[in-house]
Write a structure and sequence with these properties.
The complex is a heterodimer of chains A (162) and B (276). Chain A has 162 residues and is α+β, with helices and mostly antiparallel strands. Chain A is built from 6 helices and 5 strands. Chain B has 10 helices and 12 strands. The chains are: A alpha+beta (162), B alpha+beta (276). The structure holds flavin-adenine dinucleotide and FE2/S2 (inorganic) cluster (2 copies).
């Protein structure tokens, strides 16, 4: 069957089969280095996308559910100022993630800051469970999130002030 | 890969017609359970699938003085974003124990209750607080307690060619609750289960009592619950022990399992009711 949706701002019309996971359909539609599914089970986060503004695992989403939706991958998000704030926060906190999980973690933090501009420690810890990572200490990652939030809020606040 | 036919009904009426024509139709709400169960690259589904999460009539939320009524396709994240106090006390905590925020962005309350292979986390709570559900089929609609989603043997059941459309969650929960999630806390495994005990205590007397253990099977002794009503609290250890022994023996009898955690949790909940 054919479905329509918007991918990183561009309308798409594509053929899918009922058994397709969304992540594989997206992979075929362009060059998306952020989409390299590993676990297919909601663990690694290497399939995270925003669908209609909500962060989802595209490996756990049947492609047919994308009909009529708007999807943003890391590649679509990476051009935004919000993404730069997160990278800044991660670097400042010396919590820059490894290549395996970096994009997933950035998407994970982006989702949190979108929902809760000034997250509490419990919100941050809860959000961390989206991408499993045995190697980054949660305190540094929490610090990175708070620094990203500070940077983002300053930027947005300044703009609102003008 | 078997190719299934996919339907996107335009309304609930359409969906009911589809169910009538294809009683084996697989309803997909968030899809996290039907996909999460499959490990292979390609998914396999029955011959016909209906995707329902886009239907606005299944996402509506209304509130009255007594209850909150939510559409079956309300996501778990959606439930958590309701204003504080919109959900009875332990429910936000229970919802937060399900998967993680990205799962909850997609997972729906209807899908959580209608899981066919086991009881998921919301059922024991909603059964304890006497939540009601609306079931629709082409023969009409009816309201029933969500406790009816368990058959006499404690296995999940759901009427054929029907859909769960709305859930009514009472806003008043009993003033005592004790609950514990067992097994893998982030993904339903065979060992996963929820132990829930709730009671209304008023003027040092038990006014209502519920104790449910639900995992692959549900366990509840409705008749025995009634015998505890009217008992004075605090219960002494001498009062508690026979209740624990009775529950343990029935648990083994009904589930075929001697679950030491269940026994310990039963004892702990009765102790907590008594402020011990
Ligand atoms: C990584 C991961 C972690 C998880 N962790 C938890 C957890 O901690 N606790 C927990 O409880 N669950 C957990 N789950 C299971 C699942 O995500 C949830 O139970 C979720 O609420 C199911 O909702 P859904 O909308 O995705 O259901 P779907 O997958 O769409 O449907 C589930 C079942 O219900 C039926 N159904 C759905 N809606 C209706 C309806 N309105 N009427 C009739 N039948 C219907 C479907 O046909 C299907 O059989 C997890 C899943 C994953 C993948
Ligand atoms: S591929 Fe690992 S979470 Fe989707
Ligand atoms: S998996 Fe990448 S930093 Fe831990």
């Amino acid at each position: 069957m054919t479905i329509d949706f918007v991918l990183n701002g561009k309308p798409q019309k594509t053929q899918i089969r009922s058994g397709d996971r969304l992540v594989y359909v997206l992979q075929k539609l362009g060059d998306f280095p952020s989409l390299i599914p590993d676990c297919l089970g909601g663990n690694c986060g290497r399939c995270l996308v925003f669908m209609d503004g909500r962060l989802i695992y595209s490996c756990l989403t049947p492609a047919f559910k994308a009909k009529g939706s708007s999807i943003v991958t890391y590649e679509g998000f990476s051009a935004t100022e919000d993404c730069k704030d997160i990278i800044y926060g991660l670097k400042q906190a010396s919590a820059f993630p490894c290549n395996f999980c970096r994009k997933a973690k950035i998407m994970m933090i982006a989702d949190l800051l979108k929902r809760i501009p000034l997250p509490e420690e419990t919100d941050i810890m809860e959000q961390m469970s989206i991408v499993s990572c045995p190697c980054t200490d949660p305190v540094s990652l929490a610090k990175a999130v708070l620094l990203s939030a500070e940077c983002r809020n300053k930027r947005k606040f300044k703009r609102a002030d003008k | 890969m078997r190719i299934s036919e996919i339907f996107y009904p335009n309304s609930l009426g359409d969906l009911l017609e589809l169910l009538k024509a294809n009683p084996e139709l697989l309803i997909v709400a968030g899809g996290t359970e039907v996909v999460g169960m499959q490990a292979s690259k390609s998914l396999s589904f029955p011959a016909q699938i209906a995707s329902i999460s886009h239907l606005p009539e299944l996402q509506k939320t209304t509130r009255s003085e007594q209850y909150l009524e939510v559409g079956c396709c309300t996501t778990l994240s959606g439930l958590l974003t309701l204003s504080s106090g919109a959900l009875p006390a332990p429910l936000p905590q229970v919802i937060q124990s399900i998967g993680n925020p990205a799962i909850r962005n997609t997972a729906t309350i209807g899908g959580n209750l209608c899981c066919k292979r086991r009881f998921m986390d919301l059922w024991p709570f909603l059964a304890c607080i006497d939540a009601q559900m609306e079931i629709r089929s082409l023969h009409g609609n009816r309201w029933a307690g969500v406790s009816h989603l368990s058959d006499d043997a404690g296995l999940p059941q759901f009427p054929e060619a029907s859909i769960l459309t709305r859930i009514r969650i009472p806003l008043h929960a009993p003033n005592f609750s004790f609950f514990k999630k067992l097994g893998n806390s982030r993904f339903p495994s065979p060992e996963s289960a929820y132990f829930v005990c709730m009671a209304e205590i008023s003027h040092d007397k038990i006014e209502s009592f519920r104790l449910i253990f639900a995992g692959e099977r549900a366990f509840r002794l409705k008749d025995h619950e009634a015998t505890l009503i009217g008992r004075r609290v605090p219960l002494s250890q001498k009062d508690i022990q026979p209740i624990v022994d009775y529950y343990s023996a029935e648990f083994v009898e009904k589930t075929g399992n001697d679950n030491y955690q269940f026994n310990a949790l039963t004892e702990e909940s009765l102790g907590r009711i008594s402020g011990q």
